[in-house]
Amino acid sequence: MSDHINYTELSDNELIERFRYSHDNKYVGELYLRYAHLVLGLCIKYYQDKEKAKDATMSIFENLITELKRHSITHFKSWLYTVSKNYCLQDFRKNQTIRKKEDAYQVFLKETVELTDETHLNTENEQWLSKLEDSLKDLKENQQMCLRMFYLDGMSYADIVEKTNYTLNEVKSNIQNGKRNLKIKLEEKGVRK
């Protein structure tokens, strides 16, 4: 207990220096006690979800163990605010990318099978996805690869050209023919339009 009282008397910069010298996480722990509530408040502002904000706060302080060794910090509170804000923004962008891929995948599913009945997709989703995966495997390798890269990985035509060494016309043709052939394969497996 008296040890903790000694930490509270140290400035932020003294805690950082002692941490760098000793690699003892108790100094970061003291910084956590001082600033976790501020970081949590910032994270709540970005996430609009208290549980996600708590997880982000923990991750930010876990990252400090590495970051404090790498950076020369004169004003810890300002630096921590910037680090926390950047963490939230990067996480937000990463999640947006995931959502875009999921949205592209849903568009792919709807375009491929031309589903007009949303409840069909929702009620038989697992079985349908299994048939889709099986049907994808039945396609020619070049069509399968281009479809996966374009729809599932969210790659552009140019990215696929670079990755596969196909021409732009070959990539477009593989995607178009792959969609048509996938639709045929799905119909053969009894997936209705």
Characterise this structure.
This protein has helices at about 1-10, 10-20, 25-45, 50-70, 75-115, 120-125, 125-140, 140-150, 155-165, 170-190. The protein has about 190 residues and is mainly α. The chain is elongated. The N and C termini lie far apart (about 70 Å). The relative contact order is 0.08. Mean pLDDT is about 80; it is low at about 115-120.
| Category by helix and strand content | mainly alpha
Count of helix runs: 10
Helix amount:
over 70%
Order of helices and strands: HHHHHHHHHH
Based on the model shown, name its key terms.
193 residues; mainly alpha; 83% helix; 0% strand; elongated
Topology:
Elements: H1 2-8, H2 12-22, H3 26-47, H4 50-70, H5 76-113, H6 118-123, H7 125-138, H8 141-152, H9 157-164, H10 168-188
Quick summary of this structure?
It contains ten helices and no strands. The chain is mainly alpha-helical and 193 residues long.
